[in-house]
Write a structure and sequence with these properties.
Layout (H helix, E strand, L loop, with lengths): L1 H12 L3 H20 L4 H6 L6 H15 L6 H7 L4 H12 L3 H19 L4 H7 L5 H12 L3 H10 L2 E2 L2 E2 L2
Antiparallel strand pairs: 1-2
Length: 169
Amino acid sequence: MSIINAIIRLIELMKEPGDAELLAPRVVDEIVIRLLRSPIGARVAQLGLAESGVHGVMKAASWLRKNFSEPMKVEDLAQLANMSASSFHQHFKSVTSMSPLQYQKVLRLQEARRLMLFKVMDTGTASWQVGYQSPSQFSREYGRFFGDAPSKDIARLREQGFTAEGVSR
């Protein structure tokens, strides 16, 4: 439960950029320490080992998070992780529970949802900004992932109190 509280504190810090700049690194440190002391601590510790397959996957995942809107080749990610494409794909799936392409798709969909909800961006602009070339493909994948068409999902979230200014309570 204490790790959840730390994560909530980290999320709430995003509302206060001045506080986040100073406090977020300490909250992240707390989360890492709690993870290391948890039952999955040994797995988390592998993230820091340069020769670890997990380390290579995390390098590639980090690249994807920064460049999710760009076209991606698994071979290039595998090279970044210092692995063969097949070994990389296997390691990536074991660490993230999804393929690199699925991971990129989730990042794109989450960012598009954020843009539509908090930046009040229309569906077409948001889908283009996160790297989709086809608005209809974006809408299909969004509906599959979030359970509803983009416009309906955003309207529902706004009814629940999410606004461009954040969460209203």
